[in-house]
Amino acid sequence: MCGIVGYFGKRKAAEILVDGLRRMEYRGYDSAGVACLFDTRIDVVKTPGKIKDLRARVDAADSVAMREAVQGIGHTRWATHGPPNEINAHPHLDASGRFALVHNGIIENYKEIKSGLAQHGIQCVSDTDTEVLVQLVAYCYQGSLERAVSEALKKVKGTYGIVVMSDHEPGKLVTARCGSPIVIGIGKDETIIASDASAIIPHTRDAVYLEDYDMAVVTSGGVEMFDLQHAPVNREVTAMDWDEDAAEKGEYAHFMLKEMFEQPDAIRNAIRGRLDFEMGTAILSGLDFSPRDAAMISRVLVVGCGTSMHAGMVGEYAFEELAGIPSEVEQAAEFRYRNPIITPTDLVLAISQSGETADTLAAVREAKHKGAVVAGICNVVGSTIARETGRGVYLHAGPEIGVASTKAFTCQVAVMLMMALKVARTRRLARHDGEELCRWIDRLPELAEAVLRQNDAIKAVAKKYARCDNAFFIGRGYLFPVALEGALKLKEISYIHAEGYHAAELKHGPIALLEEKTPVVALLNNVPGKDKTLGNAEECKARKAPVIAVVSAGDEGVADGFDDVIVVPDCPACIAPVPTAIALQLLAYHVAAERGCEIDQPRNLAKSVTVE
Ligand code: M6R
Question: Which atom of ligand 1 is nearest to the CA of 353?
Answer without folding.
Answer: 3
